[in-house]
Amino acid sequence: MERRDFLKTAAVGAATATFATPAIASGKRQWKMVTAWPKNLPGPGVAAQKLADRITALSGGRIEVKLYAAGELVPGRGVFDAVSQGTAELYHAVPAYWGSKSKGILMFGSQPFGLRADEQVGWMVHGGGQALYDEMYGRFNLKPFLCGNSGPQWAGWFKKEINSVDDLKGLRYRTTGLASEMCSKLGMAVQAMGGRAMFQALQSGALDAGEFIGPWTDSALGFYQVAKNYYYPGVGEPSSAEECAVNANAYNELEDDLKQAVSYACESLYNPVWMEYATKHAMALPKMVEEQGVNVKMLPEDVILAMGNAAGEVIADLREDEDELTRRIVESYLGYRKLISEYMPYADNGQMNARALNYKY
């Protein structure tokens, strides 16, 4: 998908959309899925269409899901409210966008220095996370599901090199979720915006730097045209879960087998979406370096340590949040993070370190 192709689709105005009453005919439901993404944006836009198609297929066509990209029915950042209020039946987005609803929501998407994509599933399924996810979103008349993950994100695109923590102070930087709070504690001027807006802000000079996702998606959006220094690791988002949330009334009206179809459609896409990101990021990165002149750089160790300390302050603040449910979410997350972190040096970390050694293979 070329950048110009999906940007054209994103320009479709909301005035062209119609707000039809949900139809149930011959046992079939017609559901509207609204998304936070331009149509077929490499990564999340592609994943959203896959989810719409899979729900339709697994329901045997008894739920027909039509996807509306950002701006076609509601703005991208309006999908949460649209589904909560019943304007649409479900949305595809990321929890990192909904911090204004509750800080506790942010824990389900990504946590600075937190859980990897596979560990996120471990917390949700085996550590009590899903019950807390359901409880939080239930406040907003939503039934939530994780349905994909970008895997490790990048620290992003910088016009100037970062050599010390002092270089971060006053830096106008695009990010979202808890990473925003981490960066703010380091004196960065954080701004939240979509990918297309980030490109324009970098181009105009309104931003000095910003992160979006990773090489596959970022190259499609053309960030390399306006900033050449591409930094890793993206410690603000060691993974970033994508979610589907269904209007609770619409979900509760479903027969049990259709509820299972929606649930399994989300669950069954998590790993394929995650691995598509990983594979296509790996394919896109060499091209960015060799053909587009991108300079790949690692954040200095003192910067990473400062970010880690700032992230610790963010979590400490959340442990004292006025919302009792948010406090329970944080404690559950921290318990699972400790459990899995103590095991991984023997398991995945050990394997990755062994694979990186210099031997003939």
Looking at the structure, what is the overall shape?
globular
Question: Measured on Cα atoms, how large is the radius of gyration?
Answer: 20 Å
Percent strand equals 15-25%
Question: In terms of per-residue confidence, which ranges show pLDDT below 50 for 5 or more consecutive residues?
Answer: 1-22
Number of strands: 12
CATH topology of the largest domain: D-Maltodextrin-Binding Protein, domain 2
Supply the number of helical segments.
14
Q: Which secondary-structure class do the elements indicate?
A: alpha/beta
Average pLDDT number: 94
CATH homologous superfamily placement of the largest domain? Bacterial extracellular solute-binding protein, family 7
Largest sheet descriptor: 6 strands, mixed
Number of separate structural domains? 2
Overview of this structure, please?
The protein is of the alpha/beta class. It folds into two domains: 3-150 and 239-279, 3-Layer(aba) Sandwich (D-Maltodextrin-Binding Protein, domain 2), CATH 3.40.190; 156-237 and 293-336, Periplasmic binding protein-like II (D-Maltodextrin-Binding Protein, domain 2, 3-Layer(aba) Sandwich). The protein is built from 14 helices and twelve strands. The chain has helices spanning 3-10, 44-58, 79-85, 103-106, 117-126, 129-138, 177-185, 195-204, 215-221, 248-252, 256-292, 301-319, 324-343, 348-355, and strands spanning 23-25, 28-35, 63-68, 90-93, 142-149, 156-158, 172-174, 189-191, 209-210, 229-232, 241-247, 295-298. The strands form two sheets. Strands 1, 2, 3, 4, 5 and 11 form a six-stranded mixed sheet that branches. It has a six-stranded mixed sheet with strand order 8-7-9-6-10-12, with helices on one face. Mean pLDDT is 94; it is low at 1-22.
